[in-house]
Amino acid sequence: MNALKFITCGSVDDGKSTLIGRLLVDTKAVLQDHLAGVQRSGETDLALLTDGLSAEREQGITIDVAYRYFNTEARKFIIGDAPGHEQYTRNMVTAASSADAAVVLVDAIKLDWKNPSLELLPQTRRHSLLVNMLRVPSIVFAINKLDAVEDPALAYKNIEAALRKFAKETGIAIKAMVPVSALKGWNVVTTENNDQTDWCGYTGPSLLSILEELPNTPAETEVAFSFPVQWVEKFHDSGVTTQGRRVFWGRVATGTIEPGQTIKVFPSGQTALVSQVLSATREPQNKAAGHSAGIVLDREVDVSRGDWLLAEKSESLGSPESQRQLNTTIAWMDDEPLVAGRVYWALHGHRWVKAKVQRVVHRLNVNTLAEEEATELAPNAIGHVTLALQEPLVTLPFSQSRILGALVLVDTATHKTSGAVLVN
After folding, report:
1. Which of 31, 89, 106, 162 is 20 to 30 A from residue 355's alpha carbon, by CA?
2. Could you tell me the mean pLDDT of each successive run of 10 residues in the chain, 424 residues long?
3. 289 and 217 Cβ atoms separated by less than 8 Å
4. CA pair distance 52, 42, nearest whole angstrom
């Protein structure tokens, strides 16, 4: 299996950074000199292994997403430590947009764990709804700090029931649920270091064992072929006449490509046959979504960086449509609010077009995803927005394709990334 890219998310001080530190330490992924640098009062502060910014260490919080790498005998991992504060929702959305899995931490000591009908924290609900909206394939709930409650079995039972009720109401598919103590390492890497073998009445695998078995995000091969051109290379042999003399390099976004297929160039509309499909080592090889490729056409066609190579329309597979108006869901990241009338650069694949905010339709309540009337989106807000494009783009709904259904808005003056866009 390929490396698993997962994020940890949840409410403030739920132990996300500590959990990642525990994974790194117990899998021997931290060097001794690095470990010596995170000692506080003679004890190892696991959270400092990911909270590297000076402001994070001073305040004891996570501000930006920190990525760490480690591996076990079974698998390699890329971890994103997402911040828990509501004001850093945009950072969490950025990390979740490309994740294969999300571990949502729940702090047992912050909840009324003795109550069978307890209420979850707003940020736990918020992050769970967001990772589900962003189509993160696997969602795992880790109930943390159960070592600090009087009756861990009762606490785990009540919190588990509350989480399953919440997931059922919101349509979230739970991949697994596990009680852990990130501070002591119980049920994180192994289940053998617990005081009892059935701690909290749980007899399942450890969190790491669950992560080792999770699937990667499936390639979008069920969608018609699409290919954003990143680089155009010309052959040195100018005497070739049996095919075009240029190779179009990029990554196959959706579908599969093989010689003999008919493709259409967007936006010019020209068609051609695929003569060769090359691997990174220039070996002829068919390619599927998620893999880089070089494509040679049977004749000379004007194609530049930012253009798309598309399959001819197929009724059996999802085919992207050319549109100049998009109904979207936007996670707003800029400090300036999003208002109707503003113009931004929109980046789709490698293609840049001007996009005008036509209308702010609704603002989503990030705690419930209920739609509320709004005329603007504040920083870290999420809402439904209608965009008018200066030139058409080929898109699919984000529910069908995480690649064709995603755009980025960039401020035309400051060049700051302003918004993450999901096509509805």
Report:
1. 89
2. 89 83 82 56 61 49 71 92 77 88 95 93 88 93 94 95 93 95 90 70 92 94 94 79 88 95 94 94 92 94 95 69 93 92 96 97 85 92 95 93 94 92 94
3. no
4. 19
